Amino acid sequence: xxxxxxxxxxxxxxxxxxxxxxxxxxxxxxxxxxxxxxxxxxxxxxxxxxxxxxxxxxxxxxxxxxxxxxxxxxxxxxxxxxxxxxxxxxxxxxxxxxxxxxxxxxxxxxxxxxxxxxxxxxxxxxxxxxxxxxxxxxxxxxxxxxxxxxxxxxxxxxxxxxxxxxxxxxxxxxxxxxxxxxxxxxxxxxxxxxxxxxxxxxxxxxxxxxxxxxxxxxxxxxxxxxxxxxxxxxxxxxxxxxxxxxxxxxxxxxxxxxxxxxxxxxxxxxxxxxxxxxxxxxxxxxxxxxxxxxxxxxxxxxxxxxxxxxxxxxxxxxxxxxxxxxxxxxxx
Length: 332
Hints:
By secondary structure, the protein is of the alpha+beta class.
């Protein structure tokens, strides 16, 4: 027999949902059988599968130790292995932590880092795995792991918001979906010099069905509205090539919105392999060692539901972008 005490992150879910997370390798039929045959007790009595768990509930499960191991070896509270063959294991760099408290962890994600395990069919450790490893000693949940509150691209450097508590995750996910209570700002390096130094791009975007490559959206007159604000912060050049650094705020959050809007403006983000200028990308790769799109989520404003305060967080530019700027000459 094992005894589990329900805490904040495990409360307010059905008993059968809790058991499924605790024993991810068990079939639903087996879990129902465990409860039906009195092998699961809540506060020393049998409860229906629909029972909503409360803080400080005591769960008793009557199974042999080998059955626990067999059914729960991939459970959310299992520590990330550090010696898996074929996987490059890297620790979370504490220098990339922008903010942390009891409810949140905010990270300045490096480009080319997978967010979830096995994204893009690579074997490298993911950001969320690094987070689980970093927070392992601080976790107090049987079924909940700290999770991303929003979606991010692999090849972009981003501010990543991770919720440590289930109720905070729920609120933040809803904020990101509804675009309420959150403002996101980006820095982008684009080709050439813009005629208008500040403006609004209001072009509808259409999702390309069954896209065969990364070109997943296009400008359309009959699809989702998309609004992008931009402001030129700096203009510079390298030899005969000119560039602009933009600060961008998006009012709608569509897939590839910034990239497609800037390409439609004839000022694509440099080294954007999908929507950018291929000949310029080749030149930048050869001359300046640029090897990813220069788009950086630099600032975010949102409600911290742990402290119930509005906060603004900024993420510094990554080394590759700083190195690029150091080689540029300002345009007078």
